[in-house]
């Protein structure tokens, strides 16, 4: 059975029901089959070196190891929650690698693979889920915005940012990430209208992982998601989200079109969330084990490994070295997580405003004084009184 | 010195114009603000002079206006968003409270949100529903936002410019039923600070606190009370978040009595917070409980009833009588 056949079965709005008004299920853009064979696509090709192929494999493997380690850390009580990307590595690494250094990405809260590609330290992402901060990385320096938890809100930010890029005549484009559930949000639809109306250089990258927590895609849409784009007046394309080469090729093309002033594209990366929505979720309540087993056959990492092995682009030594690197990364993440220091209590007052208000300054002082009043420091952890903000520069 | 007699509406228009001249990063966004000049004509003529890139007629979607403003602000622009009427701000409420208000803190100060959200607010113009509301408490309750309410042309002219130049997001409330009130504005003056309340009429017997459209009502009440030999001090709050209450405490410690007036429903309105703080700070000076005069806890009524709903001269004076009767 091919990926296409699987895809058709999964996305059919009402399985078994006749829907003659619906167009035929489209083919996925695919450049690497689940069996690890290279195939050509009439519209999308990819020119990629052996080094780049190996480096893609490395990214996929390290990101998965990071994710697995974080899930384990959550289970051991070190993280409050974790949103796993298991199964979506190719969609994220492929999309992330399509970005130029000057491009800007607007993630949801699951784009650890894109974060990795943008050079964000995994511990800066983990710190958010541990509750130490809201994300420790610099969105400007990395070209990777902070995570946005409210579903779909970031699509408008991406579009507005793209309008700014356009006004600045900057040579860059914007990549907005969203999930299949987010396509039901009004704000996502507004962002599609805005992007089309202003021909903003933004690409919407929808990872259709088939479920919005427990609710299947059939509850979000009666048509394949990429077809929505037509209604807004710009191209939509569906790519095999478990094929890192196809994702890379399609996203690169869309970003290039955006940079050239051709406006937005909507990419539907057809993939599957192999883990839970978050560690608080129990997917056995809403999906069959057989479905997961089917998707395992389309594993994004296994297929690239098969291709690299078959073609001799990589050998055992290479795979072993990546495994060793993954082990080191996991160890670093584990150590770094448990050693993470909680921020001082006063820090919560410090960046509410760029220009501190007298009211909040007074609350901050009261807080510091109150905690300092415990002679043994036993009531709260030692709380250093840091200078207030006011020096923020933007 | 250059003094012109301006309406609040015209003062806002000139203030916006001057802000746009001063900073090329200022971008106006909203529905019908271009050729039409906005439904209240506050942006009249600006698109003609600054172009449709600076004065953007947006699609009809409030969340879209605020959400794209976030992205533009991240890119170094200073968006000024017009919400057509108070009751239409709620589709954008998510963006305002979960994003605009939080991004500076979320990024530990790395991203600024210098966004102004202009909202014509309050009742008294005989409109249909959703056109007369006073949503200030929702915003004042949200950390990360600042909220100001202007009451006169001078504050309108300077306030809008100060709000645009300010680094934090500001909900800028315009008293729509007072848009046509006139006063001389010195456009060369040094403006007063934006986040400061102001005593607009001195008095000894009782302090009346108001903001936005109710300042005029409060002044009328003071005028009427004076004819009966009662001396009311009137304070224009001007800033609702942060609240500048030190001058109010000073006033109340002297007068011993206070009435807070606003159009919004009284329960859990700004008056409740103010009354609590006055009680904390001025307890030993108070001769009477702090009284509140405001809208009822009902949806804003059909316009034939709005005169019953809105605080007017008589209701303010009635509260004054009660406070003085303790």
TrEMBL record, chain A:
EC class name: oxidoreductase
Region described as Disordered: spans on this chain = 374-394
Domain (Dehydrogenase E1 component) ranges: 61-327
Q: Which cofactor does it need?
A: thiamine diphosphate
List its EC numbers: 1.2.4.1
Q: Which GO terms describe its biological process?
A: branched-chain amino acid catabolic process
Give the top-rank taxon of the lineage listed in the UniProt record for this protein.
Answer: Bacteria
Q: Which GO terms describe its molecular function?
A: magnesium ion binding; pyruvate dehydrogenase (acetyl-transferring) activity
Cross-referenced InterPro entries = Alpha-ketoacid_DH_E1_comp, DH_E1, PdhA/BkdA, THDP-binding
List the keywords (alphabetical). Oxidoreductase, Pyruvate, Thiamine pyrophosphate
Q: Which residues form a coiled coil?
A: none
PANTHER family from the xrefs?
Answer: 2-OXOISOVALERATE DEHYDROGENASE SUBUNIT ALPHA, MITOCHONDRIAL
Return the protein name: Pyruvate dehydrogenase E1 component alpha subunit
From TrEMBL, chain B:
Q: Which domain of life is it from?
A: Bacteria
Name the SUPFAM superfamilies on file.
Answer: Thiamin diphosphate-binding fold (THDP-binding), TK C-terminal domain-like
**Keywords in UniProt for this one?**
Oxidoreductase, Pyruvate, Thiamine pyrophosphate
**Quick one: signal sequence residues?**
none
State a single Pfam family of this protein: Transketolase_C
Which PANTHER family does the record cross-reference, listed alphabetically? PYRUVATE DEHYDROGENASE E1 COMPONENT BETA SUBUNIT, PYRUVATE DEHYDROGENASE E1 COMPONENT SUBUNIT BETA
According to its UniProt record, the EC number is 1.2.4.1
Name the record gives this protein: Pyruvate dehydrogenase E1 component beta subunit
Instruction: Give the Transketolase-like pyrimidine-binding domain ranges.
Output: 6-181
- Catalytic class of the enzyme: oxidoreductase
Which cofactors? thiamine diphosphate
The record, for CDD domains, names: TPP_PYR_E1-PDHc-beta_like
Gene Ontology terms for molecular function:
magnesium ion binding; pyruvate dehydrogenase (acetyl-transferring) activity
